[in-house]
Write a structure and sequence with these properties.
There is one protein chain. By secondary structure, the chain is an alpha/beta fold. It has 3 domains: 59 residues; 42 residues, no CATH class; 340 residues, Alpha-Beta Barrel (TIM Barrel). 40% of the residues lie in helices and 12% in strands. The radius of gyration is 25 Å and the shape is globular. About 4% of the residues have low confidence.
Length: 524
């Protein structure tokens, strides 16, 4: 901004000197005028956050995009923290958010005969794409205020990690598009409430927004905020895919007075969430606390989120549900491939169960204990496209959540400076100068368009598979190549339990874990 002002002043001064002194001053005036006009245009426009924060110089980024695939494709194929991901996913999200998605020529660039290649099975008798978008009813027998969840929603991202304008844009997009916005564990701010979007209020180990001065869970504070009409569901975060087993960290530089007030923590001090909850120590206590949260929330859908670890531990929770007669209304499975603003590299690379195995484990455990009809399953972790959505539904999910893709829709360019408070596009910073670049009206529309286009893509894919409704999807419709000559469906790759099978006669692959699972201990 300062450089633009100086350039404009220099151009004006050169012009004045050319008129009153020497015509030679027209040379610097002519050289300075184009960048000055370009800089002014960059500052006043609202479409591109990069250009608002970095006038003139920001055009270098768009020059790189213009000459792709020679340069930009190199980075896209290595995106998402350098780990493998579908090619051009970020480009797909950007195009959908802008409403400029185009067809791709010349077919796939993947080697379809390499081990690990997966594909969905089309039908010889496709069906029409449904005109209405399906929703998922969340609410078990103990829930008195069920909620209809969209197939794709905003995953958990806290105020603190995200800027106030990013939260406003996400929530306004959710309100416009009719999908849910998970608050993340950073508390319930006025930015979550201003535009009227449906909220899933997430409570983490720090109990931010409903904590006592000592850091314990505050029932009265929780009940008061859960009563907000926009809060449609409440969720207890047990663990997160990118960093299971450790708590979150919000650097002190980001903890301004406003964030401190929302989180109910001291201003300017680094906030570290504990790795464990104080309100329970056993599976049975966890199940009882879920029931307690639901009562305090006046019957709203209540559930928990986790990155799956030991199958035995999750079976212990299922046993506790059966013995207590209490179930959550939903469980969100977060895959180990999920992202975060900051996580130790070794955690991101080596801890936690990937989403595919985690989903199949949770789905089968609930089916095998006869609880699946009472509990809905959400999936999060690198969900970005319609094909991702369909695959997760096939693997046991009822709906999905996206975080990184929603950040891309906001304009995130993966500068990977989320933890430094210097995000160049105003998405993950509390710096007022940087956040001014993010235009809420424009970015909320992009969030809505991205979600709408992705769900439409998923419905088109299902129609091509001969599926009229997500409930008709089955594991045999997704296949994986094991080697150049062997392809198996997910129905063949994994064991799928029958309803109540663990209670009547668990199969050999599950028997040892089922017998060792203890509803009164997380260790077996």
């Amino acid at each position: 901004m300062m450089s633009v002002a100086m350039t404009v002043l220099a151009a004006v001064a050169s012009g004045i000197l050319a008129l009153v002194s020497s015509p030679w001053w027209w040379v610097p005036a002519g050289l300075l005028l184009p960048p000055a006009l370009l800089g002014v245009g960059d500052v006043v426009q609202r479409k591109h956050s990069v250009l608002r924060n970095y006038p003139v110089l920001g055009h270098l980024r768009y020059l790189m995009e213009y000459i792709r695939p020679e340069m930009q494709q190199y980075f896209i194929e290595r995106n998402f923290d350098g780990r493998p991901f579908d090619r051009d996913v970020r480009s797909i999200v950007y195009q959908r958010a802008k409403g400029t998605e185009a067809e791709e020529a010349f077919g796939t660039e993947r080697d379809v005969y390499l081990a690990g290649y997966e594909f969905l099975v089309p039908s010889m008798a496709p069906v029409p794409v449904p005109e209405e978008k399906p929703v998922v009813r969340i609410g078990g027998p103990d829930c008195t205020r069920p909620y209809d969840m969209a197939l794709l929603n905003v995953s958990a991202m806290s105020f603190g990690l995200l800027s106030s304008k990013a939260i406003l844009a996400l929530n306004r997009g959710a309100a416009q598009g009719g999908f849910a916005h998970d608050t993340g564990e950073g508390g319930l701010s006025e930015y979550h409430l201003r535009h009227g979007g449906d909220l899933v209020w997430e409570i983490g180990t720090g109990y931010f927004g409903c904590r006592t001065p000592e850091g314990d869970f505050d029932e009265r504070d929780f009940a008061g905020k859960a009563a907000h009409t926009q809060v449609k569901c409440v969720s207890l975060k047990l663990s997160q895919g990118a960093k299971p087993g450790i708590g979150g960290v919000l650097p002190g530089g980001k903890v301004n007075a406003e964030i401190a007030r929302v989180r109910e923590v001291p201003e300017g001090r680094t906030v570290i969430s504990p790795p464990y909850h104080r309100v329970f120590r056993t599976p049975r206590e966890l199940v009882r606390f879920i029931a307690r949260m639901r009562r305090l929330a006046d019957g709203k859908p209540t559930g928990f989120k986790l990155c799956v670890g030991s199958r035995r531990e999750f079976l212990a929770v299922c046993k506790a549900m059966c013995e207590e007669g209490v179930t959550p209304d939903f469980i969100v499975v977060d895959g180990a491939e999920g992202g975060t603003g900051a996580a130790p590299l070794e955690y991101a690379d080596h801890l936690g169960t990937p989403l595919t195995e985690g989903l199949i484990t949770v789905h089968n455990a609930l089916v095998g204990t006869g609880l699946r009809e009472r509990i809905r399953i959400g999936a999060s972790g690198k969900v970005a496209t319609g094909a991702d959505l369909v695959k997760r539904l096939l693997q046991g999910a009822d709906y999905t959540n996206a975080a990184r893709a929603m950040m891309f829709a906001l304009g995130c360019i993966q500068a990977q400076r989320c933890h430094t408070n210097t995000c160049p596009v105003g998405v993950t910073t509390q710096d007022p100068w940087r956040t001014r670049a993010l235009d809420v009206d424009d970015k909320s529309a992009r969030v809505r368009r991205y979600q709408e286009a992705t769900v439409r893509s998923a419905l088109q894919i299902m129609a091509s598979m001969g599926v009229r409704h997500p409930g008709e999807l089955a594991p045999h419709q997704l296949r994986r190549r094991l080697d150049p000559r062997t392809v198996l469906s997910y129905g063949e790759l994994y064991t799928w339990l029958e309803p109540g099978q663990l209670l009547t006669g668990p199969p050999s692959a599950w028997r040892r874990d089922w017998e060792a699972a203890d509803p009164d201990s997380f260790r077996g």
